[in-house]
Amino acid sequence: MLLEIVGITKTFGGIRALDGVSFSVEKGAIHGLIGPNGAGKTTLINVLSGTAKPMEGRILLEGALIHSLPPYKVAALGIARTFQNIRLFAGMNCVENVIAGQHLKAKRQLLPRLLHLPSANREEREYRDKAMACLKRVGIEHRAAIPAGYLSYGERRRLEIARALALEPRILLLDEPVAGMRRRGIEQVGGLIRSLATQGMTILLIEHNMKFVMELCSRITVLNFGRVITTGAPSEVGRHPQVIEAYLGAEA
Ligand SMILES: Nc1ncnc2c1ncn2[C@@H]1O[C@H](COP(=O)(O)OP(=O)(O)O)[C@@H](O)[C@H]1O
Ligand SMILES: [Mg+2]
User: Fold this and answer.
1) Using 50, 70 and 90 to split pLDDT, how confident is the model at 79?
2) Which uninterrupted H or E stretch holds 224?
3) Which of 28, 148, 226, 234 could hold 214 in an S-S bridge, CB 3.0 to 4.6 Å?
4) Which ligand is nearest to the CA of 223?
């Protein structure tokens, strides 16, 4: 197992957003994380990436405890994420957005430093080359010099993934990467996720689109009201009575 989540509890005031959540993500897998709105999916990603601290429980990345580390250390150890609500710098071009992602890991303020250095600087060139390679991996290298604000919605989703890839993660946490997309865009991002997994990347995928999750994932964990209903293969999860109830209501 690459990632082990053990008894994670996170409360906000009286709300138990996560209530003893445990499951593991196998190395190289595309692991789905589904559940109704408010189930705790994003909160779990926040905990995994170090931006939210759990009240109870442990998180292990290849056996090392990481749940008490600050976000930049978690990123440096190989956990990268995208955001449910896209977070890009609209006025900066695509390469710069990806470079900005790399500063997370550097701890020091990389970006201001880079923007003030002469353009011929070797270090800057290295970061740019790496950023270009990430744009290429997600298929938007031809948009490198375009401000993020001018990209289509689907391209912005891809740019978010490129920025996460710039951290050279061991595991990629994707928070609803095809939300609001049309079928063609969904298929393209699906293909991208599959190709990343083929290259050895481990992926934890949050998504509402059941067909998308069922087709892509080898295992799926279902959350509801902060608790894990079940973890299993898509076929098992799809016919689990509590899962059907959570999605379709009791009458179903
Ligand atoms: N920062 C926060 N402050 C207070 N409540 C929060 C906060 N973040 C999440 N919650 C609550 O925790 C629960 C889980 O939210 P979230 O993790 O966003 O669910 P999901 O991503 O599955 O839709 C919800 O009831 C939500 O209102
Ligand atoms: Mg969410």
Assistant:
1) very high
2) strand 219-224
3) 234
4) 1
- Other C-beta atoms closer than 10 Å to the C-beta of 174 total 26
Sign of CA dihedral 31, 235, 194, 174: negative
Q: Ligand 1: which of 8, 10, 11, 12 to mutate, most ligand atoms within 8 Å of CB?
A: 12
At 252 the pLDDT is: 44
Alpha-carbon distance of 3 to 5, in angstroms, equals 7
Strand partners, 175: 206
52 or 125, greater pLDDT: 52
Give the nearest ligand 1 atom to 45 CA. Answer: 17
Q: Which fold has domain 1-78+169-252?
A: Rossmann fold (3.40.50)
CB 80 within 8 A of CB 167: yes
Q: How far apart are CA 4 and CA 2, in angstroms?
A: 7
Nearest CA to ligand 1 atom 12: 17
Give tens-digit pLDDT for 215-251: 999 999 999 999 999 999 999 998 899 888 887 665 5
- The structural domains of the chain, with segments of one domain joined by +, span 1-78+169-252, 90-166
Ligand 2 mean position, distance from CA 81 (Å): 13
